[in-house]
Amino acid sequence: MKYFGLQNQIWRNNSNSVLLLVLFPIIFFVLTWLFFFFLSFSSEVHKTISQINQNFLITVPFIIIGVLLWFIIAWFSHSSMINAATDSKPLARNENKRVYNLVENLCISTGMTLPQINIIDDDSLNAFASGINQKTFSISLSKGIIEKLNDEELEAVIAHELTHIKNRDVRLLIISIIFVGIFAFISQAIFRTLQFGGGGRSKKDGGGWTIIIGLLLALVGLLISSLLRFALSRKREYLADAGSAELTHRPLALASALRKISVDPTIEAVKRKDIAQIFIENPQIKEKKSSFSLNSLFATHPPIDKRIQLLEQF
Questions:
Q1: How crowded is the C-beta side of 239, counted as CA atoms within 13 Å?
Q2: Rounded Cα–Cα distance for residues 93 and 99 (Å)
Q3: Any idea what the Cα angle at residue 167 is, between residues 161 and 169, rounded to 5°?
Q4: Contact 124/266 with Cβ under 8 angstroms?
Q5: Where does the chain have alpha helices with state H?
Q6: Window from 145-154, 212-221, 248-257 with minimum mean pLDDT
Q7: Residue 256 is assigned to a structural domain of this protein
Q8: 280 vs 76, 91, 93, 237, 254, CA distance in Å?
Q9: Looking at residues 147-155, what average pLDDT do you find?
């Protein structure tokens, strides 16, 4: 498999990513309608489709308001949330001029504004980009990746992260994380209600069925949205690899860097799976790999061996 027509690949990946993102709210509204549909079977009087639609439409404004509030809060607090979850701190120019020179040279060549440069105090090798606009764009590099990669390899990694920023991947991934967070929150809230006796009401008033139906549908939403988020993350990694190769004209340098990263990408501070997807390679403790395709559906990143193979054929 070879990279063929970078612009075509960019268009294809962007189109697929937008499609995946549009599916998030559709899933939310479909599951809400199904909630009223299944709930009608648990009541003493079976409701018609028109009555179910009416109940759904009454609920829609409240759903939209709730989702918007969630988005606004998450949108403006995402930088502090990510920095806290990754233990990422600002790197001053006098602390490492080498890194600043590499980032500045790449930014000048692409006409980009210099992003905030952060460092993660960890000897493992990893990096990520984050932010939603010029004021919040940042690149975070682990102490290990700075010390263990040569200039060409580190430049290729930085170019990979700058490509994420340039293509607005980080903004798109943050939005997907927010959507998945909504389903996760709803699932946890309903489960705790059920756990602490919320489902102990009599079947006559339908309280128990309401909670059970809500929990099952929320879990379905969490599963589907998570799969879409993982697919979105994997597609963007391939595109960022291609962008790095085009920017530096050294695809083999990134391939070499990925080989070194694959040996030890684990960042101890990262505990959240949703944050793991923004790194160049999954920073959490590696699980045993399986050839079974089901594992790949839940992977935050494409196989690093496949990424290296594609870069070697670039």
A1: 26
A2: 8
A3: 70
A4: yes
A5: 6-42, 49-86, 97-110, 143-148, 151-166, 169-193, 207-248, 251-263, 273-276, 293-297, 304-312
A6: 212-221
A7: yes
A8: 24, 19, 23, 7, 11
A9: 97
In a domain, 121, yes or no: yes
In a domain? residue 1:
no
pTM recorded for the entire structure: 0.79
Please state, in angstroms and rounded to a whole number, the distance separating the CA atoms of residues 161 and 142.
13
Best CA proximity match to 157, nearest among 5, 2, 307, 314 = 307
Give the tokens for residue 308: 């290296």
- Tokens at 8, concatenated: 């075509």
Instruction: Tell me the backbone φ, ψ of residue 118, rounded to 5 degrees.
Output: -120, 160
Query: What is the DSSP secondary-structure string of 8-77?
Result: HHHHHHHHHHHHHHHHHHHHHHHHHHHHHHHHHHHSSSPPPHHHHHHHHHHHHHHHHHHHHHHHHHHHHH
Cα 163-166-168 angle, rounded to 5 deg: 105
The answer as to whether 83 is a domain residue is: yes
- Separation between Cα atoms, residue 145 and residue 164, nearest integer Å: 18
Q: Give the active site residues.
A: 161
Task: Give dist(CA 217, CA 25) in Å, integer.
Answer: 14
Q: Measured between alpha carbons, how far is residue 105 from residues 101, 223, 248 in Å?
A: 6, 42, 11
Residue from 285, 314, 289 nearest 304 by CA: 289
Q: Is the model's pLDDT at 25 over the cut of 70? A: yes
2-11, 116-125, 150-159, 181-190, range with the lowest pLDDT: 2-11
Determine the structural domain holding residue 259 and report its residue range: 6-312
Q: Are 139 and 116 in contact (CB under 8 A)?
A: yes
Please tell me the total count of domains within the chain.
Answer: 1
